[in-house]
Amino acid sequence: MKIRKVLIPVDFSPSSKRALNCALVFARKYQSKLFILACSEGYVIGPEVIKGHWDSSDQQTHNLLEAIKAQSQKETEERLSKFLEDAFGEELAGHERLVVYGIPYEEIIRAARRLQVDMIILGTMGRTGIERLMLGSTAEKVVRLAHCPVMTVRREE
Amino acid sequence: MWEIKKVLVPIDLSDTESTSNTFPFAQSLAEEFGAELYVIYVYQIPTLIDLLSAPLAFLKSKEELAEGARVAAEERLSSFLDKTSSPTIKPQGLIRSGTPYEEILQVAQELTIDLIVIGTRALKGIDHLLLGSTAERVVRMASCPVITIKPKNFRFVMP
User: What are the chain B neighbours of A21 within 8 Å (beta carbons)?
Assistant: First the structure.
């Protein structure tokens, strides 16, 4: 068995930092390539807008939405760089970073299929987790829907 | 720093479909990392309802029934381990009775397991909605990382 590619979706939470630490254990053993994915969700109006639930046919709305999307993408990219540099320094050099726009679990599943990863590693308690027993709703959907093995990592207690 | 020194793989001997992907994965990981591999099988002691289909069982005492179930479980596990043996790694079999997820979590704690590898169940038609209640609870409650493995017949359905 080979674990060549690993996808690690991060939401900048302590549990996604721990997920990256675990991913490095696999990367060292299998010389796996890590794909670190952050999802930019845009602002209040949410991704539904981009998916066409709003009428974006007129030019002005269209431009506004594109601007929001671009801004959100840029901010997420900066946030990801800072998060990775602060926590890992140079340790993640040579691995890929991806920023996608949309609903996190859908983008994670899509990226996993597209990149044909052998495993997904993700933190179970992201920004919205409130209880010890709760699995983040994104983590839960990814565990259910992913075609490949999924490793879930709790944040350090 | 997290290291993989002890791997626990719960197996459901009544569901060969879910075990067929899970066990080899755990075995291969344990081999690669030089970890100890623990295989846990949680069996059920028959209840009164189960016994309705075997009327003569009423003649046995509760202790006899429990003992019978334990012996049968041991035999099933050891024949599973014989079948899957590998020259480089010798898994350690563990038998427990009770509620699977509780026993799995308890053993993981007792043995300070670093990683649990667990299969998800396949149910026809709605497999993308169901994780299997044992796997789901283990994922939610285990303090160590958990790898969930899909059964061979898992189909991808984007809802």
Answer: 1-2
Q: Is residue B34 domain-resident? A: yes
Each residue's pLDDT tens digit, B12-62:
887 666 677 899 999 999 999 999 999 999 998 776 666 666 666 666 777
The residue with greater pLDDT, B106 or A71, is: B106
Residue B43 lies in a domain: yes
Domain count, chain B: 1
Lowest mean pLDDT among A86-90, B122-126, B140-144: B122-126
CATH code of the domain containing B115: 3.40.50.620
Among B33, B42, B49, B35, smallest CA distance to B14 is for B42
- Which of B128, B142, B147 comes nearest A144 by C-beta? B128
Q: Where are the alpha helices (DSSP H) in chain B?
A: 16-33, 48-51, 62-83, 100-110, 133-141
- Residue B154 inside a domain? The answer is no
User: Given pLDDT bands bounded at 50, 70 and 90, which one contains residue B128?
Assistant: very low
- Interface contact B129-A144, CB threshold 8 A: yes
ipTM of predicted assembly, 2 dp: 0.86
Contacts of A124 in chain B (CB under 8 A): 139-140
From chain A, pick out residues whose CB is under 8 angstroms from the CB of B3: 25
Report pLDDT digits (tens) over B53-109.
Answer: 666 666 677 788 888 889 999 999 999 999 887 888 899 999 999 999 999 999 999
Confidence of residue A139 (pLDDT cuts 50, 70, 90): confident
Strands A150-153, B6-10: pairing kind: unpaired
Task: Give me the domain span that covers residue B58.
Answer: 6-149
Tokens of A11: 């939401």
A119–B contact, CB cutoff 8 A: yes
Number of residues that make up chain A: 157
Reduce the DSSP state of residue B108 to 3 states and report it.
Answer: helix
Is residue B142 domain-resident?
yes
Residue of B nearest to A132 (CA): B141
Query: Is A121 within 8 Å of A24 (Cβ atoms)?
Result: no
**Domains of chain A in sequence order:** 5-153 (3.40.50.620)
